[in-house]
Amino acid sequence: MPTDAAPADPASGALLLCRAAPGAVAAVAPLLREPMQLTRAGEGWSVLVPEGGPWREGGEPVDRVVTGWAGALAVGAPWPVLALWWDADHAGFTLASGFRRPVGFVWLSSGVPAGEDEAMRTFAARVGLDPVLDVQALDRLTEPDAAADARARLRGLLAVLARVGVSMPPELAPGLPADRLREAVALQPDSRPVEWPGLREAVGEHGTVGHSRLGPLLPWTGAPGAPAAALAQMAAGVPLLVWGLRRHGGRWGWITAGALLLAHGTVGLAYTVTHPRD
Q1: What residue spans define the domains of the chain?
Q2: How confident is the model over 177-196, as pLDDT tens digits?
Q3: What residues form DSSP beta bridges with 108?
Q4: In angstroms, how far is CA 29 from the centroid of its own chain?
């Protein structure tokens, strides 16, 4: 998998497929602090199209960036996230689900497989594909095929995922550069922008004030500031988690800290929903 920083590649791009309705995704995606466009991608699926600043302007490898994003989203939400990515030399995907180790596969630009066959089987099981027929279709993507380049492999992957409800708008074809994808998704009838609103807007000007000093930090106390504190914890946890995942070899201390903040904030929000105040 490419990991070394390189000059910006105008051909690079990515898509983030989330197994959730757009409304659920829109509530969490702003915490990534990356301008994105969101639209529906089939029954029970949504797709985020990132602007791509980290790899277009900062020289970060696209695969590392979107793997971090997928991991952060999947930890902070009860649904898996599939990142599809490509650059001038490679293309691939990464599936993140909860705290489990991400699984993915890579092809060279010519379509030559550069991943492990077992990863496809793990991927199929986590997504809920048929362990026989669908796995056979995925296995064909790991075999040599002179007529299929890396982009064609990603399109083949999406064709298999149609069996679990994925239906991408035809304009959002893997392999297009990020700017063309953004233009295409903006024309979708249910497309909406997703942007970071800022911490004050996210938690409210007086959001951390509760009945006691510790009250807002404990979701089970029912303090007025608990929901806002949970959002603040998620807002702090996502950047830490993304930063740790994007570093070469990982920074597990930051990953753990970010994951704990994100998980605690998620518990707090869930408690607020299931135990509303009178």
Answers
A1: 13-194, 199-274
A2: 888 898 999 899 999 998 86
A3: 90
A4: 8
